[in-house]
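<instruction>
Derive structure tokens from the sequence

<record> Sequence and structure tokens follow
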Amino acid sequence: MNTEMLWVLGLLAACVVAFIANRPRMDAVALLALLALVLSGTLDVSEALAGFSEPSVILIASFFVIGESLVRTGIAFRVGDWLVTKAGNSETRLLVLLMLAVAGLGSVMSSTGVVAIFIPVTLSVATRIGVSPSRLMMPLCFAGLMSGMLTLVGTPPNLVVNGELARAGYPGFAFFDFTPTGVVVLMASIGYMLLTRRWLANKPEKSAPSGKRRRLRDLAQDYQLLGRSRRLLISHDSPMVGHTLGELELRTRYGANIVSIERQRQFRRVMLTPAVNREILAGDIILADFADGEPDIERFVADMQLQDCGLRNDLSHELGLAELLVPPDSILIGKSILESRIRSQHGLNVMGLRRSGQPLSDNLLQEKLKPGDTLLVAGTWKAIRLLHTQSHDFLVLNLPAEIDEAAPAAQQAPFALLSLAITVGLMISGIVPNVIAALVGCMLMGAFRCIDMESAYRSIHWQSLILIIGMLPFALALQKTGGIDFFVSALLGFTGEASPRVVMASLFVLTAVVGLFVSNTATAVLMAPIGIGVAQQLGVSPYPFAMTIALAASAAFMTPISSPVNTLVLGPGNYRFIDFIRIGVPFTVIVLLICVSVLPLLFPL
């Protein structure tokens, strides 16, 4: 073990510790490690920056855009509504259809995004059929994780492993090479969940009259908001004219929360975000919410010389509501609504707060947020849709049915499906490289107006991409310094003269254990070259070993912090840490057995 290898291994260990502590952010850690490898002379500049030209990075970014296009055209939500219709009142039918639908959608878009979409749908149906959400949230979570096992583009670790095969001089995986094993795992998981759901909480919920998605009025009623809003015209004589909202301090003086501002521009009226520095002009129309009701409304209208315009029937086409859940790991916990800066960061106003199912009204803005709190926010549909990609500090729990009516590209849904079909067809046929096929799909989505450029850039999870770019040079640094050979020799020394299947099982276990502490993407970056190196040392095909690494990286079933998908369902499912251990550990063993049994048959050693 030479000095240079010790340096690289020490740096890698420091990165893992930083990943576990999550300080600083993982993408920042990866970039700092990249700089350290260059400044130490371990890698030259071109080697360290090779990740920026890595095709898998472009491929992952492209499928973030394609996935967002499916959301903007309403396709993902329509699948959820179809699930509600087909499930009826049967919990078993719901569980099976839910897992199939989530796994299918997640195979071509972000699994985290798919699970976030299906959480409110699942909660609604669970209430209607009278079962505890905890009996359905774990199956939803598992289906989201397994969606990454179904196609080459199902999850970033698949593409990372595929890229490592190419760097080692082997042809990569085809689009559906993951599918046979993934389908076996999915079918096993459905059967497993049907048997083990009784281990989860089974206290029935109160039944609701309908399983349809809730509407704006329902959400407003839950938070006691009905009758509190007024649409008011700013006259030329109003003392508000020429002042910013920050200067007016309307919430402090009158309890008036300005939700939106309508302003005439040339031949059309536009909806403006009520930012603190937004100046009020004569002729503006404001939509204001009053926490204390009629007395404040009358005083505000009289003092500010305003005219009541009445609420527009079509206002829901431009403005909407969303219910947000504060998850246990949110940085908002312990902060007040004012300190959380939801309006300044997301362009949304907090209209209400519920705790333990009860709405709070007194001193709302100063109330410190707690895990499990739900917030009702109001704003433009555009801002509400961006919640999925702009923050990981709250979960979009309920989106009203009106969001489908206001989908920005709902009429382009057929073209989105056509673009997706062309993309997948190109990847299957091999006419062009996968990354080119994905870029073609993005261009088609843009050409058919399924997504605009701003939304496309916002949809990309840049933290994941930077993490991959920063960690990829580690593989090269380990190869140059002998680190890969060291790990390969250590693993083969541990397994002795065991069969290749036993070595595959050891790789699976090691990858799954690393994945408990490090993101699945970083796990794949670290373990892929080791898996391929082990296969080369054994003189066998690298493909079953490479796929073992990819599948083990996605098998993040064992703890609620192993994957963002697990974290999303923790609150709505009312789960404890031990629930994931009880359900996840046995199923991880099942996935291990499937891998070592099936993969050598599909990819002969």
User: Anything to note?
Assistant: The chain has 29 helices and ten strands. Confidence is low (pLDDT under 50) at residues 202-211. The longest strand covers residues 256-265. The CA atoms of residues 164 and 600 lie 20 Å apart.
